[in-house]
Amino acid sequence: MTLVLRYAARSDRGLVRSSNQDSVYAGPRLLALADGMGGHAAGEVASKVVIASLAPLDDDEPGDDLLAQLREAVANGNAAIAELVSQDPDLDGMGTTLTAVLFAGNRLGLVHVGDSRAYLLRGGQFAQITRDDSFVNELLEQGRITPEEAAVHPQRSLLLKALTGHEVEPSLTVREARSGDRYLICSDGLSGMVSDETLAEAVQIPDPQQCADRMIELALKGGGTDNVTVIIADVVDVDFGEDAPIVGGAAGDGSDERHQGDSPAARARALTQPPPQPRPELPQPTEDPKAKRRKRFRWLAGALVVLVVLAAAAIATRYFVLSQYYVGEGADEEVVIYRGVPGSILGIDLHTYEQGSCPPNQVCTDKLRVSQLQEDARLAVQNGVKKDSLDDARKYIDDFLQLHKRLNNCAPAGGQTSPTPTNPVSPTTTPSAPAGSTAPSSANQPAGRDCSTPSSTAPTTGGGN
């Protein structure tokens, strides 16, 4: 019996995002999907780099140790991200999820980091085979929220693991491949928009390409608020399978988003497809002086319109920037509130100092310093924790960071030193703890800690930007 893959892959930037930060690769031996994160910090660069590191696995005959090959490729991709960040500090904060399958006949290796997902349809049973490395999933597994609450939780996009150039341990498993199996690999632009029940129904569509089209259509109908990427792969028993790789999303040339057919999904993709390439210009006849003057006038009028549009855009951008707040590191390592967004343009800061760690109009004898925080909270503040309002930023300092400060000063019973929690992913956005609940507990919390509140894991904002 010869088992091969029959596959299709699609990626769409959605109806809201201005760019596609997902990258996808589907080939005879390798299926890989990366959902970039980081927004201005070039999440699409991170996803492309990681996919490029895994792509050579599709050209080689898989050996006996599938997981060693996957682990090495992922480590190379993560190291490439670290090198890019070291060369360009403006890229600090970019990262990507990864879910990939390396196929070898009757076995396959699966590597996973983040909240992109892999599902398996076998014998009529449809189930998720990866675990979301997310803040909300940790709350769900601890029984602190219900599945219904998890589906609408405001922090459901926050990641605890991602490839950002920092050390991370991916999940690696080996699975048996059977004829008739169907795998669905997708970014959270699909799983976050479409219920598992609807996915279980749509995945039954026999043709992989039509099935992938249907998945894209469902995500767009659900709102299309994020990039959406899908791989559909069938394990079939035939002599020869497909051998033409599909490269899409940020790693491709946009052909996977262009109009194909007249299905509802194709028409939805056509709304956001790249513009067609311009046709070669034909030689123009010699213009008379009056025509040249008219042309010059039109050019000046057009330039004036462009200037007006740019001025309006600048005003709108300034309004947007000044309506944002974030918690960051100020002078003397103080935790402070800035108005605006992190970063600068042409040397001009996009933020201004708003408040210190102490509430205004109050005498402050003990300012909150970054060095007082646990490492996960310290990294979050150093990267900038975005908030929707000044009150949210104030509450973040008063509640969440003060909690980290207390935990950092408490010791285990018996005078033993508590272990340092594993460093999570450097975050781009960390929200305040939900009302009426405590921060999530560390996975390795030792017994006997002399604290009333469990330590928390600072989450990281995921794909989708």
TrEMBL record:
Q: Which SUPFAM superfamilies match?
A: PP2C-like (SSF81606)
**Any transmembrane segments, and where?**
299-321
Gene3D superfamilies per record: PPM-type phosphatase domain
Organism, by scientific name, is Amycolatopsis nalaikhensis
Q: What are the boundaries of the region Disordered?
A: 247-293, 410-465
Q: Which Pfam families match?
A: PP2C
**Pro residues compositional bias, start-end:** 273-283
The Low complexity compositionally biased stretches are 417-443, 452-465
- Kindly state which keywords UniProt assigns to this record, in alphabetical order: Membrane, Transmembrane, Transmembrane helix
Q: What is this protein called?
A: Protein phosphatase 2C domain-containing protein
Q: Per the record's keyword annotation, is Metal-binding included, yes or no?
A: no
Q: Where is the PPM-type phosphatase domain?
A: 6-235
SMART domains linked to this entry: PP2C_SIG, PP2Cc
Q: InterPro entries from the entry?
A: PP2C (IPR015655), PPM-type-like_dom_sf (IPR036457), PPM-type_phosphatase-like_dom (IPR001932)
